[in-house]
Write a structure and sequence with these properties.
It is built from 14 helices and 22 strands. The protein is of the alpha/beta class and 554 residues long. The protein has helices at 37-47, 60-76, 194-203, 215-218, 222-229, 254-263, 268-274, 343-363, 383-390, 427-437, 458-462, 481-495, 511-529, 543-553, and strands at 79-80, 87-98, 103-106, 112-114, 120-123, 130-140, 146-147, 152-153, 164-168, 208-213, 233-236, 248-253, 283-309, 314-324, 329-334, 337-340, 368-375, 399-404, 416-419, 441-443, 468-469, 471-473.
Length: 554
């Protein structure tokens, strides 16, 4: 899932000669790497070819993809990264809701029955053949946030065990024009993400959790919700079958939420405004909710691929590079083409992972170990990285930090570099001189309200306390400026993103990708040859997790 910056189109810039390495100005203490453009081209072209059928996990295309990545890791000079093996098994389970009832609310001035798909969507994390929520009291819990470090608790003073909670999307500061407020203004925090809201509702004991969809704070329309939450859903297959989660999780349309509140004698707009204020108290609506559906259950497995360049002095400290190998497989045909090849998303990041492995191996081992992790099932919910982060081959309290790559710049060199989710970790301080060494500047993230930081594999590690850089070229291209860069972003989103048209183009200009990879290389090398343990800034959501993790390591 690429968070688009400048992706996927050809701009009028000169292409690089095949195989020619590029080097930027020297950054402090780290020699310039030789990033192979030929490797980038070969790996991307191969992985995004029709022969790999869109690289959908648990299909025959996975076997071919995994074998190719292992072949390239071996050729690059890496060692098997899982105790002599190249892969880590990732157990998954597919749940498919069937015979879904209406979501019914009773006890108000009029009963309200919401239809599955058009008015509501419903699912479960629980691996169970049947879900039946019956006459569950409904409570409005505002934004559904429990953040003691910010002095905020929407669940204070109320017991929601066995109840259905209705939750607003995003966080209380989302309408602030700047980054002011307890929740960092328009820059969405993790507390604003839908997955956090379901996680917290489960911790609070809610039987069901329903998010109110609103296009502006969600940053996507109902069509995205409907397509994402209907049909088969894939989750990690873990001990306990996720029975600690709420029985049902889902979304309702905004106008239906307003109708529900009106039926309960409440003013939705007034309560929504109240929920933005510190000290908000949850409001029982005096109505009950019921919903039921069957689940078909299919257990399956996929693989992460792991290579390592062992360290010489501190081999039990680890620096991590990640990229996801999967894409969507066969998809809705457009002009007769029904394979979503994922050339940018994320064959390009996979190519970058191989090219970085080559460059580090050529430079020789660092003092700390360098780990190259190609993860599965990012497109189905970051499952491969989530599994590794919960079942790490190398202890996370000995994982220094790293870089995630989800889509490289193939439109030529950029003057700027954008850090996604800026203001979170000390890795940002480390890259400033590295970016400056390329005669580039760090630009602010153009749309922090979209919560892009929480939508790729680095986030799985952030939740466990490991700081990971997610960043890349901005839109200010050296040829064409911001007008060309922004046009490229819009064109990719409209015409290629998650479509069969995301295909390899031999005319791509990889010079911008090489400059970004140079930044990733130098950051990784500095971490791997140093002794520092970068932390989160004190205001970041993950600081306490890292502090506890490092204390345990010491």
């Amino acid at each position: 899932m690429i968070r688009p910056r400048i992706l996927g189109v050809v701009l009028p810039v000169a292409a690089l000669a095949a195989g020619a390495p590029l080097a930027a100005k020297p950054a402090p203490h780290v020699a310039a790497p030789a990033i192979s453009v030929e490797t980038l081209k070969q790996v991307d072209k191969t992985l995004s070819s029709d022969a790999f059928e869109g690289r959908k996990p648990t299909t025959p295309a996975e076997d071919k993809t995994v074998a190719y990545i292992i072949e390239r890791f071996k050729k690059a000079g890496l060692k098997p990264g899982n105790h002599g093996q190249w892969t880590q098994a990732v157990p998954m389970v597919e749940l498919n809701a069937q015979h879904v009832s209406a979501l019914s609310f009773k006890g108000g001035s009029a009963p309200l029955d919401l239809a599955y798909g058009d008015e509501m969507v419903i699912a479960t994390y629980r691996v169970t053949p049947k879900v039946d929520v019956k006459d569950s009291p409904v409570v409005f819990v505002g934004y559904g946030i429990h953040a003691p470090e910010r002095g905020w608790d929407d669940y204070a003073g109320i017991d929601v065990h066995g109840k259905t909670v209705v939750i607003l999307i995003n966080d209380p500061d989302w309408q602030n024009p700047d980054r002011s407020g307890l929740f960092e203004g328009k820059a969405e925090t993790y507390y604003g993400r839908w997955m956090y809201k379901f996680e917290e509702a489960a911790r609070q004991g809610a039987a069901a959790a329903i998010i109110v969809h609103d296009t502006e704070p969600a940053a996507y329309g109902w069509g995205v919700v409907k397509s994402s939450w209907t049909g088969p859903q894939i989750e990690l297959d873990e001990k306990g079958d996720h029975l600690d989660q709420s029985q049902a999780i889902g979304w309702i349309q905004l106008d239906k939420a307003k109708a529900l509140f009106a039926s309960a004698g409440q003013d939705f707009d007034a309560l929504q405004a109240a929920a933005k204020q510190k000290g908000f108290k949850a409001v029982p609506l005096g109505v009950t909710a019921s919903v039921s559906f069957d689940n078909s259950v299919r257990r399956q497995a996929s693989k992460n691929v792991i290579g390592i360049l062992p360290g010489t002095a501190r081999p039990n400290d680890y620096v991590l590079y990640t990229a996801h190998w999967d894409h969507l497989g066969h998809c809705t045909p457009i002009k007769g083409d029904g394979i979503c090849n994922g050339a940018l998303d994320n064959a390009s990041g996979s190519a970058g992972l191989v090219a970085l492995a080559e460059a580090h191996a050529k430079a020789g081992p660092a003092k700390r170990s360098l780990v190259f992790l190609s993860v599965t099932c990012e497109e189905c919910g970051l499952l491969g990285s989530r599994y590794y982060a919960s079942h790490p081959i190398y202890p996370l309290n000995h994982t220094v930090g790293g870089v995630n790559m989800d889509g490289l710049n193939v439109n030529g060199r950029a003057r700027d570099f954008v850090v996604i989710g800026a203001g979170k970790s000390e890795l940002e301080d480390m890259i400033k001189p590295i970016v400056a060494a390329e005669d580039r500047v760090i630009s602010p993230e153009p749309n922090p309200e979209r919560g892009s930081y929480f939508r790729s594999d680095h986030f799985s590690f952030a939740k466990k306390g490991v700081p990971m850089l997610d960043g890349g070229s901005g839109e200010d291209l050296r040829v064409g400026g911001t007008a060309a860069g922004h046009a490229a972003t819009l064109d990719y989103i409209a015409n290629r993103y998650h479509k069969p048209q995301d295909e390899y183009n031999p005319n791509w200009d990889w010079s911008g990708a090489v400059e970004d990879l140079t930044i990733y290389y130098r950051l990784g090398r500095e971490l791997a040859n140093g002794t520092s343990w970068p932390n989160w800034y004190k205001t970041a959501e993950f600081r306490s997790i890292r502090d506890q993790s490092r204390a345990e390591a010491k």
